[in-house]
Every structure is written in C-alpha cells, then in structure tokens.
Amino acid sequence: MFDPDPPFRPVRRRQGYLPLEDLGLVGDGAATALVGLDGSIPWMCLPHFDSDPLFCSLLDHARGGHFTVSPPDLREARQRYEPDTGVLVTEMRCPDGLVRLTDALALRDGADLTDDAPAGSAQLVRSAEVVEGETHVRVDVEPRGGAQVRGLFSGLEVRPSRHPHMRLHLRSNRPLPALHSTHHLRKGERLDLVLSWGRFHRHHRFDPEAILRSTAYAWRRWMRHFTYAGPQEPLVRRAAVTLKLCDDWSNGSLVAAPTSSLPAPVGGVRNWDYRYAWIRDAAFAVFALRRIGFVNEADAFLGWVLDAFEYSRRPRIMYDVRGSLVPEEVEDGELEGYRRSSPVRWGNGASDQRQHDVYGEILDCADQWQRAGGEIQPALWVSLAGLADAADQAWRQPDQGIWEIRDEGRVFTYSAGLCQVALDRAATLSERLRVPGTTKEWRASAEYLRRLVLEESWDEEAKTLSAHLDGGGVLDASLLALPLRRVVPFDHPRMVATTEAVATRLGAGDGLLYRYLHDDSPDGLPGSEAAFVLCSFWLVDNLVGQGRIDEAHELYASLCARASPLGLMSEQIDPASGAFMGNFPQAFSHVGIIGSGVNLARATAAAGAGAGHGSVDEVGVRT
User: What is the pLDDT of residue 623?
Assistant: First the structure.
C-alpha cells in the first residue's frame, strides 16, 4: 500500500533478487533507473529508455552489473519520494547507524517539464548522509561486462566495455581510488556521487545539493498543473509522476514500461521487452493525463502517434520512442533472467503482428488531436481516410488481438470493435472538417459493426459477449473496454451481463482478473500468467457506468491498496501472494489508477447533485 512515510522493513531477497515491490523509479525524460531498498541500482539504460543497459543485475544478480551505495550489515530500510517529485529517498539502518540516500536523475536548472524538449542534464546524483550514529558506506560501481577506468583530478573516467562509444565520469566530494571504495562517515557527514554521461561535466561546479534542489523544484512546478480531486488523491498524484517518468519528453511518446524481460509468472517464458511505445496506449494515457490537468503531455503523445503513422506510411502497433521501427526480438543467453526466469529478450517480436485494433487507435488519436485544436493536414487526412477504408475490410480477417498472442489468429471481438471506432471517428472527422471521404458508408459500416458485436459475439447459453466475433462464450477481459471506446453502452443489458460474466469467470479473487483463461484461449505459449492489473480498473469503470457506485468505490480502493509503498504498480499481480509480476512499473496500470479515479469522482459528484446514474468519460470524448 502506498505510504508517503512508510515504516522500516527487512531487506529480503529471493534467489538473489529484491521483490519488485522493493524498487523505486527515477528518471529525466530520456532514461530511467531502478533503485533498490538495499541502495543498489540494478537497472539503468543509457542514454535512452531502450539503450543497452549499463547496470543490469535486475536480470542477472551475479553478472548483470549494479551501482550500489550501502552501509555494511544492512538490517532494514524504507523508501519514499520527496512529495510531488521524481526524487527518491532510501533510508538504510545498520547496527552502527542510519544512512539516508537521495537519488535523482538530474534536471537542468530552470527546466520546464511542460515543454516538448529535453530537460535532463545527463547526470545521476546519489547523495548519502549519516543521520544517526557513524558507519562505513560502501560504493560499488560495476557496469555490465566491466569497464576501463582512468583516474582524473576531478574523479574517475569510466569506459564501459559494452558501450565503447560512451564515456562516463564519476565525481565525488571524497577521494575515489577505484570503482569500489569504502568511506567512513559520522553523523551529519555526506558522501556525494555524480555519474555523468553525454556532454562531459567534469569541469562544472560540483554541487549535488543544488542539483537535487533544482530537480525537485522542476518537478513540483510541473505538478502545479495537477487538478484531480477524488478518491485516493495521494496515489493519483504519484501515478501522474510515474507516467511522466515513463514519458520521453523530447518526442512525446510513452514507454509501456522502462524495463525488459521481467517474467509473468516467475519461472515462465513470458518475458518481453516493454521499452517501446504502443499506439493503443495513447488513447488511454491521453484520456488519463488530460483529465488531471496535463494537457501538454496529452497533446504531445497524440502528435507523436500521428507523426509516427505518417513516417511509417502503414499502421504499426508499436514504435521506439523516436517513432522508428522496433528492433527485431533477440534472446540474450548471457543473462539468467530475474529469479532465473529465462530467456532475457531485447526488441519485440510482436511489432510486426497483425492487430486490427490499431486502425481504431490511430483514428481515435486523430479525432482527439483535432478536438483539442490540432490541425489535420490534407496529406495526413488522405492517409487517415485510407485507414478507415482498410478497417472496413480488416475486421473480417483473423489477427493476434490486443493481447498479442503468439499463435494462429482469430477474429477477435475487441479488434472488430476497434475497427468500428476507426469508421466512427473517420466519419466524425469528415463531417466536422468537411473534407472528402465516404462518410455515409463509414457511418453505415460503423453502425453495422456495432450491431454485429452485440449480436454475433453474444452467446445465449453463457449469457455473455464472446472473445471471438463468431460467439462461443469464451471470455476475454478486453470486452470490458468496449464501452470505454463507445462501441457499446455501459448499461446495455448484454454489456451488463458480460461484466458479470467476466467478473465471475475470469475472477482471480479479491477483485483481480485474468485477461483470459489459457485452457479456453490458447495463445501459443506454455504456462499461465498472473492477474492483469488494468483489467480490474476496466471493471471499476463498468461498475461506474452501470450506476453501481458503491461497488466501484470498494473495488477501486482494494486495487489501490495493492500499490507498493512507493505507489508503484506492476503489469500483473500474483493472486495467491500479492507479489508483483511482469515489467515494472507498468504505465497502463497507472493509467488505470488515474482514469478510474476520475470516473469515480465525477460519478460521485453527479450522484450527490441528484443526477442519479453513474457517469463515465469514454476514451476519445474530450470534456
């Protein structure tokens, strides 16, 4: 559970690895790092989200490399963020004292995080202070694969073996004889470390305290735009910062997660690289960000989607953060994987999959972009109109679906529903902008697909819509997203029945949901998986839309209680243990925290004003 002032807890490891719940995230809009409860940095990719990791003990505790600042004989620790910032504080207690470690990826002095521009200064700041007693503090810097080190009057020059063109500089307020050193500190004394890359900083004034202050100020100035007032407000605030940490501030894109190959479940092979931007994330993320005051980020993501589509000249489900093609998927046999869950993968093999929901995602983004004042140039409109025409045919063909199965495709109901979204938004844009298009045909096809989803996928015996358009009663939690995309109404009797069926048959206990049951819906991969966090937030939204406000509040509170003490969420949760699984932190899960909170707040306010029925903002509707 999120706790801005958490108690100390033992530092625990399983098979040499910290639980994901014991990791915090720092970032600067270009790169991120995970900081452990033990003072380690087991994951950091430089200079970009999707670069080869510099520190990678998250995926191999013995050979992956890390950057650790810690006292000896560490007994217990706790972590918290400086309020409304990406500055992380880790307090570590040992028999001789208490060490407070402050971490941040530094931001430029005066940085404005609402600008579509780089704000980072290419520096990692680690500042340790003894606040009780006196103790030694150990520093270990081990890039993956080793490094060549040269002493300079201002610190150490580090050339990582796996990054031959990267030159790092490690500076400190204390002598650094090598990448491994021990420092004795008394109460009130500090050990400051700054690791820099890119443009060299070794001749700059060394003032880590000033860097941390200006970094925290830039974050807090950005958070002044936060406008949410509703349930779980402290956690929603933290979710906004987490989404910003997953955002590429120069390009406007959003990575699904800043990590790769964290397994779901542990010991399985469902280990994927999530350090890329999925088109489908855009509509949901824009919905969430816009409704809590972050209009610039929402517009930047929409613009990035349209730019990436124009550049590639064909709809793709994902791109790298710069809008280019995602690298081919490869396996890294040198790393054992988190808790020995192999293989470790770089790149993503799903990038070329056929997923028909992408037609609706792109046209929905175009609709939101234009509603927000963006311009649709004639050449872009021609491409968008062609996309609508393609969607009118594509829904009939099998695809791999929203869950990116690695098996033969099916005609998924959600994919057909998003083709309906494509046709509906194209018709709306054509009417609003008075631009050429087969508007009447698009509108007629959209209505036909809406009826088809409700009629053809309905299974009378199971009393539910089905995962596949030809019916059969097999369930898929993505059906819960159909009302969010305005394909069917929340309160349609068949949608109400489907909500009940999903909650019952896909329920994993205590409000958690599986995406689908693997025995019913084979996906081409061995093993099973844990509960998918976002699906439960979709259930909250459906309860709100059906006027079941008390049930929605109860479920939302239980889901939010599953956040880590830092307010972070993973992709999946083990229903039996509550442990986090999958890539971490997962942007989609934090989108759920924000979006469902907004819906609950509005519905509660409407009920208090006597409106009676629940109120949900569907994705793609600008209010």
Answer: 37
Tokens representing 270 are 């469902």
- pLDDT for res 547: 97
CA 165 to chain centre: 29
Distance CA 413, CA 339 (A): 36
In the sheet that holds 180-185, the strands lie side by side as 40-41, 66-70, 135-142, 180-185
Beta carbons of 103 and 129 less than 8 angstroms apart: no
Question: How does pLDDT run across 549-559, given as a tens digit for each residue?
Answer: 999 999 999 99
411 residue type, one letter? V
**Are 198 and 165 spatial neighbours (Cβ–Cβ below 8 Å)?**
no
DSSP strand pairing (53-55 vs 120-133)? unpaired
Write the pLDDT tens digit of every residue in 414-432.
Answer: 999 999 999 999 999 999 9
Chain position carrying tokens 């004042």: 373
CB 154 within 8 A of CB 195: no
Q: Rounded distance, CA 384 to CA 306, Å?
A: 10
Structure letter (DSSP) for residue 377: -
3-state secondary structure 87-110: CEEEEEEECCEEEEEEEEEEECCC
Distance CA 391, CA 139 (A): 56
Residue 32 · residue 44 · CB < 8 Å:
yes
C-alpha pair distances (Å), 504 with each of 313, 494, 501: 42, 15, 5
What is the distance, to the nearest Å, from the Cα of residue 461 to the centroid of all Cα atoms in its chain? 38
The residue with tokens 């013995």 is 62
Is 494 exposed, middle or buried, given 0-12, 13-18 or 19+ CB atoms closer than 10 A?
Answer: middle
Triad 3, 5, 11: Cα angle to 5°: 80
Distance of alpha carbon 398 from its chain centroid, rounded?
28
The angle formed by the CA atoms of residues 64, 68 and 69, to the nearest 5 degrees, is: 180
* Contact of 544 with 554, CB cutoff 8 Å: no
Query: Is this model's pTM higher than 0.85 or not?
Result: yes
397, amino acid identity: Q
Burial of 531 (0-12, 13-18, 19+ CB in 10 A): buried
The series of mean pLDDT values per 10 residues for the chain, 623 residues long, is: 96 97 98 98 97 98 98 96 98 97 96 92 97 97 97 91 93 96 97 88 79 98 96 98 96 95 93 95 84 91 88 87 95 97 96 91 91 90 94 95 89 97 97 93 97 96 96 95 96 98 97 93 88 98 97 98 98 96 97 97 87 60 41
Residue 188: which region, alpha, beta or left (left: phi > 0; alpha: psi -120 to 50)? left
Cα separations in angstroms, 477 against 338, 529, 536, 590: 28, 14, 9, 18
Q: Residue 448: what residue type?
A: Y
Q: What is residue 161's three-state secondary structure?
A: coil
CA-to-CA dists, residue 44 to 41, 144, 329, 430, 453, angstroms: 7, 10, 20, 45, 44
Q: How far is CA 260 from the centre of its chain?
A: 12
At residue 318, the 3 state secondary structure works out as strand
Number of H helices, E strands in the chain: 12, 28
CA dihedral in degrees (314, 315, 320, 321; nearest 10)?
Answer: 110
CA atoms 452, 455, 458, 459: torsion sign: negative
Q: What is the DSSP letter of 539?
A: H
Note the pLDDT of residue 198: 78
